[in-house]
Amino acid sequence: MENKAKILIIDDEEVVLDSCAQILKGAPYQLATASDGTSGLTLLQEFRPDLVFVDLKMPGISGFEVLEKIGEIDPTIVIVVITGFATVSSAVEAMKKGAYDFLPKPFTPDEFRLIARRGIERRKLMLEAIALRKERDLLREQFASIVSHELKAPLSAIQQNIFALEFELEKRLGPEQKEKFERIKARLTDLLKMINSWLRVIAVDIDRLKEGFVPLSIAEPIANAIESLDTLAARKNIKIVSEVGQDLPAVLGDKVSLAEVFVNIIGNALKYSPDGSNVRVTARQEEQTIAISIEDSGIGIAEEDLPHIFDGFYRGKGGQTVAGGHGIGLAVARQIVEAHNGSIEVESEVGTGTTFTVRLPIHQS
Ligand SMILES: Nc1ncnc2c1ncn2[C@@H]1O[C@H](COP(=O)(O)OP(=O)(O)OP(=O)(O)O)[C@@H](O)[C@H]1O
Ligand SMILES: [Mg+2]
Predict the structure, then answer these.
(1) What CATH number does domain 210-361 carry, 3.40.50.720, 3.30.565.10, 3.30.70.2860, 3.30.300.20?
(2) Nearest CA to ligand 1 atom 19
């Protein structure tokens, strides 16, 4: 069955409507016409056009209003405004308001056909892009669900059983066997960590994240992050010096994912710094933002790595030589910070140290 593209023309001049119908006769379009804005909008709801021609100057509601209403009803409908002589400025204005093109009166049949064809093509591309994005989201969700059911769940079950087995055999295990258990457990923990980070990169669903935003003090997720890194810091004898004011203005966000941002950045500072060094975490107000800096005196990041460290699965040369990882932590951190309308910056010098600064807008209540 043929799927004809639909064109709606809204114009108060009878001759314009007639001549358009005449021009498109035999063309592969389905045509509807209306002689004022209000009936045009009513017709639009049931006709669902791909392309609308709207006269800017009509009695009753104006072409501009029609333009805005169509954008509210369905922003993928392509709109071309029909303008009289010497109204270039209103055409420009209309295009700012979302019109795709304009057709100056009087127009030749060829001009009209050309613009109609371009408009229909535009609509097709828009719908294709939307379908593609939907498909990609679906794939992402499916992949996340496969990783989580087919990989994560069985591995977690194995981990549980290993723990149980080790506990049952505890008294009978020699040192070498105990050592083997430790290795198995460590590898399993790494695998699970990796899967969890993959899931994070694939599944940071920004819209869902935003739904749970509440005003909060940045001190809280920072403190939670530092607490969860206690063991790692102690193992490397690194002191995390925190200078975070308790009375900073609130930010709007999600506590758990913000804590994840700081775990990833402070965790890196610990990972890529020598034993016995210090990591400094500060938070202060800078104009309308809260700026949180994490400063280490570790290995630093080479200049050629700097533009890529926030990409998923990228690891710096220096980083690879001193510690394991998957190149995911900063990618996740950036996604979360951007979902909060914030930014992350880095300054680093090889051999001297690195400072990451996260900026989050202050909540305007
Ligand atoms: N504080 C730091 N000092 C030196 N290099 C760093 C620091 N933070 C990040 N890097 C570099 O940036 C790279 C990317 O960091 P990211 O946290 O994304 O991944 P990762 O630490 O390698 O792995 P993981 O996914 O386990 O976090 C690291 O591999 C490292 O080379
Ligand atoms: Mg990391």
Answers:
(1) 3.30.565.10
(2) 327
Distance CA 219, CA 216 (A): 9
- Distance, in Å, from the CA atom of 301 to the CA atom of 346, rounded to the nearest integer, reads 9
Q: Please tell me the distance between residue 357's alpha carbon and the centre of ligand 1 in angstroms.
A: 15
CA distance 334 to 310: 7
Of all protein residues, the one whose alpha carbon is nearest to atom 9 of ligand 1 is 268
End-to-end Cα distance, the chain: 55
User: What spacing in Å lies between the alpha carbon of 162 and ligand 2's midpoint?
Assistant: 27
Ligand 1 atom showing the smallest separation from residue 330 Cα = 18
Q: What is the DSSP letter of 35?
A: S
The CATH number that domain 5-107 falls under is 3.40.50.2300
What are the extents of the domains in the chain?
5-107, 132-203, 210-361
Cβ atoms of 326 and 197 within 8 Å: the answer is: yes
Pocket of ligand 1 (CB under 6 A): 197, 264, 268-269, 272, 296, 298-301, 309, 314-316, 318-319, 325-331, 354
Q: Which residues of the chain have pLDDT under 50?
A: 1
Span from the CA of 214 to the centroid of ligand 2 (angstroms): 27
Using CA atoms of 339, 251, 301, 310 in order, give the dihedral in degrees to the nearest 10.
0
pLDDT tens digits for range 67-123: 999 999 999 999 999 987 657 788 888 888 899 999 998 899 999 999 999 999 999
The type of residue at 275 is D
CA distances from 29 to 45, 49, 117, 127 (A): 18, 10, 10, 17
Q: Which ligand is nearest to the CA of 313?
A: 1
DSSP letter, residue 148: I
| CA quadruple 37, 39, 44, 45: dihedral sign | positive
